[in-house]
Structure formats: C-alpha cells, structure tokens
Design a protein that fits this description.
By secondary structure, this protein is α/β, with parallel strands linked by helices. The protein has a single domain, classed as Aldolase class I (TIM Barrel). It is built from ten helices and twelve strands. It has an eight-stranded parallel barrel with strand order 1-4-5-6-7-10-11-12, surrounded by six helices. Helix 1 runs parallel beside helix 2. It is globular, with a radius of gyration of 16 Å. The protein starts with a strand and ends in a 7-residue tail after the last helix.
Length: 251
C-alpha cells in the first residue's frame, strides 16, 4: 500500500514565509530556506513552495530561492506561483524543483497542462485548485483566491486529469487557515471521480483532522502550513499517531 504523505506548505511573499486565514490577513512565519531544511530533517515527505503573490503581481517565482531550497533539502518539493510557460517550468526543474504547480494559468489556458505533461511527464505536473463552496457548489477561484470563475471543482478536476496532470492540490478556501478540519466530503467525491493522487489543503488544526482527511476524505497527501510553522503539531508526533490509527506513513 502506498504511504500517505505529510506536506508542509511554504507560502512565500516578499521572500518570507507567510500564513493567513481564508487567504487574507497574512503574518510572517519565517525564512523559507531555514524552514524547508527543518522540515526535511523532522520527517516531512514533501514540501510545497508557493509564491502566493506571483500571479497577482504578474511575475515569476524567484529561481534563486528555489535553488537555495534545493541545496538544503533531500525530499521532493513542488514550486508554484505565476508559472505559465514551458520555459519557466524548464528553468525551475533545472534549479532543483521536483514538481511544478500551476493554477490560474491552467484555467486560463487548459492546453498548458497538455503541453507541460507532454514535455516533462505528468509525474511532475501538479494542478492546484482553489475552490469555495458557494450555495452548495464548489466554485474554482483564481489569482490566490481573489477571482471567482464559473468553473465547478469536480468538472475541472476531471478535465485536469484527462489533460495529463499527475496530481491535484485541492484547497478549500472555506477551510483555509480556520483549523476546523479539511473538506472531507469534497475530497472523498474527488477521490471517487479521478485516479490521480489528491493533496488535501485547507483546514488542518489537529491530528484528528489529518486522520479524517485520509480515512474520510481518502486523500493521498495532507498539506498544512501554520500548524507546522508555529510548532502546534510536530510532524514526528503526527506520523506516530497516524501509524497508530492504521494509516501507512513513512517514519
């Protein structure tokens, strides 16, 4: 059985790791390179490194920071933020990223998913989907959750898989930063609809929330930020509890 993955997320703004609630009210959480190294040392399975202002500010993720992170960690890490071309992905991978995450650019031009998976292989193409539950429908949002679309989460997830994405990073905007638990009902439905791995994001607050994301939400990986950044849930203890609950993890 494949092990479930624990994935700290480093949201980057102005060269610092930040964390907010419902995508706003950001506060500083430290140096991303230092944090990345610490996470690799305490048992994180992967890292996600997102330049959250890149799309809004119409710029690319800083290659220099990617290179510095790659020099400090020995676990896979994904880079996202403002990625919209084969050339940019090529540069990120050459600087040490294992995977790239695309979001707004994929919605605006879905063919990009095909192009990137054909060029680099689906295994390193993650499509991030930020969605909000509005009047009973999960609606996809762009540009760091600031721009609503008319696209529905489940329709988009199916298309993303068909176009060659190797993984989906689903963030519930309703749950993000609230520490109230993951969107397990939506996660479970996604898991039943598609065959590629799903990373759950948004809502981690307790160890039980991770257990539920794997058992109820059927997620392949669970991502969190503030509970890790501010020492609320040590990864070593989290993995021990998951193992006790019968969830396969790498210790």
């Amino acid at each position: 059985m494949l092990t479930k993955r624990i994935v700290p997320c480093l949201d980057i703004k102005d060269g610092r790791t930040v964390k907010g609630v419902n995508f706003v009210d950001l506060r500083d959480a430290g140096d991303p390179v230092v944090l990345a190294k610490q996470y690799a040392e305490v048992g994180a399975d992967e890292l996600v490194f997102l330049d959250i202002a890149a799309t809004l500010e119409n710029r690319s993720t800083t290659l220099d920071m990617v290179l510095r992170v790659a020099e400090q960690v020995n676990i896979p890490f994904t880079v996202g933020g403002g990625i919209s071309s084969i050339e940019h992905v090529d540069a990120l991978l050459k600087n040490g990223a294992d995977k790239v995450s695309i979001n707004s650019s994929a919605v605006k031009r879905p063919e990009l998913i095909n192009e990137l998976s054909n060029k680099f292989g689906s295994q390193c193409i993650v499509v991030a989907i930020d969605a909000m539950l509005i009047h009973g429908e999960w609606i996809v949002h762009l540009a760091g959750g600031t721009i609503p679309t008319e696209i529905k989460l489940f329709d988009w997830a199916i298309e993303v898989e068909q176009r060659g994405a190797g993984e989906i990073l689903f963030t519930s905007m309703n749950h993000d930063g609230t520490k109230s638990g993951f969107a397990n009902e939506a996660l479970s439905k996604l898991s039943n609809l598609i065959n590629i791995p799903i990373i759950a994001s948004g809502g981690a607050g307790t160890v039980k929330h991770f257990v539920d994301a794997f058992k109820k939400g059927k997620a392949d990986a669970a991502l969190a930020a503030s509970v890790f950044h501010f020492g609320e849930i040590p990864i070593v203890e989290l993995k021990e509890e998951l193992k006790q609950q019968g969830i396969p993890v790498r210790i």
